[in-house]
Amino acid sequence: MATISELRKFNIFAGLTDEELERLVVLCEEETFPAGTTIFGENQPAKKMYLLMKGRVALSLSLPNEKRSIVYTVPENEVFAWSALVEPFQTTAQAKAVEDCKVLSIESDKLFPLFQEDCRTGFVIYNHIGRIVANRLKDTRGQLLSLTYG
Questions:
Q1: Phi-psi region of 55 (alpha: psi -120 to 50; beta: other; left: phi over 0)
Q2: Mean pLDDT, the chain, integer
């Protein structure tokens, strides 16, 4: 079972109180994925948000030539699959374990009732998701520019 101290390692929960984290801890499930495992595919229904505790996860996009391009490698103590909390609730990339991974997962349909009951927790988490999306968009833009202009 997850602990408050484990959740504190993730920036997405920065600013939450112990009481707020306690409500999240009970929603977390621990999962493991051996290296090489596809955690979820691209353009699939997104039902869980993942918190990477150990290992690395590659996020990749399909290319027209049926190859894949890694657009981001998720480091430890970072969230991925935030799409489970944002309409249309569909994954935007494939996630594959690069190394053996240990994650905490939270089902979105368990989080939404908590957010309705505790708007502050929802606000803090969505504010962090906004930053994550903005940073990943900035990184992707940089990759596109380097491909275009060398």
A1: left
A2: 94
Q: Does domain 4-107+115-149 have CATH number 3.40.1570.10?
A: no
Which pTM does this prediction carry? 0.91
48/40 Cα distance (integer angstroms):
10
Q: How far is CA 119 from CA 112, 130, 148, in A?
A: 10, 16, 43
Q: Report yes or no: 46 and 108 within 8 Å, Cβ to Cβ.
A: yes
Q: Which residues contact 13 (CB under 8 A, 6 or more apart)?
A: 7, 21, 24, 124, 125, 128
Domain ranges of the chain: 4-107+115-149
Mean pLDDT in residue range 49-73: 93
128 torsion bin: left (phi>0), alpha (psi -120 to 50), beta (else): alpha
User: Residue 90 has which token pair?
Assistant: 């569909």
Alpha helices by DSSP H, listed for the chain, are 4-7, 18-25, 108-117, 119-149
Cβ proximity of 3 and 66 under 8 Å: no
